[in-house]
Amino acid sequence: MRDAVSMSERNEVNRDSATVVAPAPWRFPALVVLFACSGCAALIYEIVWFQLLELVIGSSAISLGILLGMFMGGMCLGSLAMPRFVSPRHHPLRVYALMELGIGLLGLVLLFAMPLVGGMYTAWAGQHAFGMMLRGIVAGVCLLPPTFLMGATLPAVSRWVESTPQGVSWLGLLYGGNIAGAVVGSLVSGFYLLRFYNVATTTYVAVAVNAGVALFSVLIARAVPYEPAVAPESEVASSESAYGTALGTRLVYVTIALSGMTALAAEVIWTRLLSLLFGATVYAFALILAVFLLGLGIGAGFGSELAPRLARPRAALGWCQILLCGAMAWTAYQLASSLPYWPINAGLSATPWLRMQLDFVRCVWAVLPPAIFWGASFPLALAAAAASRKQEQGQPQDQARPLDQGLLVGRVYAANTVGAIVGSLAASLWLVAAVGSRHSQQVLIAVSAISGLLALAPLPKRSYARSSAPFYAALVMAIVGGGLLIWSAPAVPRDLIAYGRHVDETGHGQIVYAGEGLTASVAVSRSAGGVLNYHSAGKIQASTEYQDMRLQRMLGHLTTLVPPNPRNFLVIGLGAGVTAGAVAIEPRLERETIVDIEPLVAKAVAQYFHAYNFDVLNQPNVHMQVDDGRHFLLTTKETFDGITSDPFDPWVKGVAVLYTKEFFELARRHLNPGGVVTLFVQLYNTNEASVKSEIATFFEVFPNGSIFANTSQGQGYDVVLLGQVEPHPIDVDRMESRLQTPEYARMAQSLHDVGFNSAADLLSTYVGQGSDFQPWLKDAIINRDRDLRLQYLAGLDVDLHTEDQIYNHMTAFGPHFSPNVFSGSGPLLQYLALAIQSGQSR
After folding, report:
1. What is the pTM of this model?
2. 20 to 30 A Cα–Cα from 162, which one of 41, 198, 357, 773?
3. What topology is assigned to 553-729+769-801 in CATH?
4. Does domain 234-487 correspond to CATH entry 1.20.1250?
5. pLDDT value for 94
6. What is the CA radius of gyration of the chain?
7. Integer Cα distance of 301 and 397 in angstroms
8. What residues form DSSP beta bridges with 816?
C-alpha cells in the first residue's frame, strides 16, 4: 500500500489530519491468511453445529430455516453492533484476537452443552406454533453468541485500514480470503474430518485454528502499534449520522441486500437441482457449497482489484447486478437443459472419486459465473458506500473527513446478510414449493435487474452528479434483455426430478406426476408393463414391482403380527404408502401415525397408489404428521406397539440420523411391552461396509434382533430387521391363528398376493439373529449421533450393484433355525425349521 514503512518501523499518525499511514506490505497478506483460517474454522463450525442441532430440533424445512436464519442473523447483529459498542481506540487486531478466542471457547461450550440443551428442549417441545417457538429459542441460544462474534470480525479489523480507495480494496481482499478459507473448511470437513472422525475431533480442529489465528493476531499487533483514524467521539457519532442519511449510501445498502437475497435464494434452488443430478450425498453438498464459495472468493478478488480504479463504484455495482441477470439465466439453462443430457454415464466411474471430479467440473461450469458476480458485489458495495459518504460531505474523496471504517463495513455486511437471510428463507420455505424452480429463478433474475437499476439511479443534481444517460441505457437493457432472460429460463425436466443422475439412461417409464415440495422433489412414473414407481431424491424409492411390494408388505405385517396387542403403531416414511397400508388393515388397530418430512408425498400417494396401499390416507384411524421421524419421537409422549421405519437411502444427506444407536434407543423407549421395531435395509446401491454399519448398530440396541430377507429371483435384494423391547420368542401359533380368522382375511390376502400363504411362510424368510452375525460384523462401524459415519460410507458407492455378494457374505453365517427365536406347536415349528433351511420363501 501507499506510504508503507519498513518492518522495523512503527506506524506514523498525522494527528492533525487524523489519517493513518498504512502498515508495511507484508502484514496485510499475513492478515489475509489469518482471515482465510478464520473462514475455514467458521465453515467447520457451521457444518458441525447444524448437524448437532438437527438432532435436537429436527431436519424439517422449518427447522433448517430456523437454523439458517439464526446463524446469519447472529452475523448480521455482530457486524452492526461491533462499531457501536467497541471503541475505535482499541487495537483492531487485539479485538479480532479476542473474538477468535471467544468463538473457539463457545465452540467448545456448545459441543458439551448440546446434550443438556437437547434434553431441555425435548422436555418442553411439542408440535405447532409453540414447538416452532422453542426451536427458535434453542437455535438462538446456541448459534447467536458465536455467530455474533463471527459477524463482528471483519468490521473490527477494518479499522486497521486507511479510508482510501486502496484501503477499501484491501477490505475486499480480506473478505475474499475469508471465503477462500470457507472453501477449504467445506472440503476438509466434508471429505476428511467428518468422514474419519467424530464431531468432537472436528470441533477441536476448528478451535485450534481459532487459537492459532488469535495468537498470530496478537503477535502482529505487538509489531504494529495502532492509532485510531477517527479522532473525537463526536466525529464517530457524526459519521454514523452521515451513513444513515446519505441517499447514495442507502441505495448501496439496498442493492447489496438484494444481491445477498438473490445469491442465497439461488444457492438453495441450485443445490436442490444439482443434488438430483449428482445424488444427494454429503459429498455432493460439500462440492456444491465449495464451488459456490469459490466463485464468491474469485469475484471478491476481482472486485477488490477493480474498486480503487473506479471513478464511479456505485455504477459498477449496478452494472454488476445487471450482468448477474445473464449469469443466472446461464445457470438456469445449464441445470435444466444442458448438464442432465451431457453424454456421460457417471456410473461407469471406476472409483467414486472420478465421479466426484466429474461432478466438480459440471458444478463449476454451471454455478461459477454468477457466483463470481456476487463475490465482486461486496467490495464494489464497500467502495460505493465510501464514495457516496464522502460525496455527501461535498468534498473530494481524498479530502473528506476520515470516519470509522467499522461503521462502513458493518453496515454493508449487515445489509448483505439481511438480504441473504430473506433469500434463503424465502426460497427454502415458500418460493420453490409455491411456484417451482423455474419461476423462482425468473423472480431472482427480475430482482437482480431491479437492484442494478437502483444502484444506477441518478441522485438529485449536485456538483458531483453525473449524467443520467447510463441509467436509461441500463433501464432499456434491463427491460428488454432482462425480459428475454426471464422468458428463456427453462422448466426443470420431469425426467430429472424422477431419475436424477440416471436421467440420460433409456427405458424410463411415463412420468404421470412431478412436483417440487418444501424439502424434496417427488415424481410418479408408470412403466410399459403398468408398474407404478414412486420417486424422490432423484431415484425410485418404492414401486408396485413384485419384489418391492413383497418387502413393503413384509415390513407392515411383521410389525403388526408379532406384538401380542397390536393397537397403536408409528410408520416413519410414507413412500408409496404400501407399508403404512399393510399396518392399517390390522383389525385391532386403534391408531396409526404416519410421519413424513415432505408434505407433497401424501398428495402423490393418495392420487396414484391408493389401490395398492388400501387407501391408507383416507382411513379414519390413520393420522398423517409432517415432520421428520426423529424429531417426532423426541417430542411425542405416545408409546407404540410397533414402529416401522422405511426412510430414504442412508447415503442421502441427513438420513443417517434414522440409523444411529441413539435413534434406535429412542424408538425402544417408545415401545409398549411386547412392542417391536422393524427397519428396512437395502443391499443395492450401497457397499458392504454400510450394510454392516446399519445392521451392527441396530443389534447394539436389539442384540436379540432378527433379520428377514427379501430376495429377487433368488439373489440378494434387501432385508428387514426386527427388534423387540423384550427378548420373547415370536409366537408362531398366535400369528397363524390370527390369519385363520375371518377378520384377518384382508391381511391373509395381502400376504398371499406377495407369495406368503401362512405366517410360517412369512417367518421362513428368517436368516438369523444378532449373535449369529457377530463374526461378519466384527469390523462394522457403529453409527452414532456424534459420529454419523454411515452417510460418508454409503455416499461413496451410490451406483454399486453388489447386493447378491453382500447377501451371500451375510448368509454364510446362517440361516439356521433357533428355538430361542420362535415358539409354537411341534408340527408348525418343524415345518418352519425346514422352510428356513430350504430358503423356500426367501
Report:
1. 0.91
2. 41
3. Rossmann fold (3.40.50)
4. yes
5. 93
6. 30
7. 23
8. none
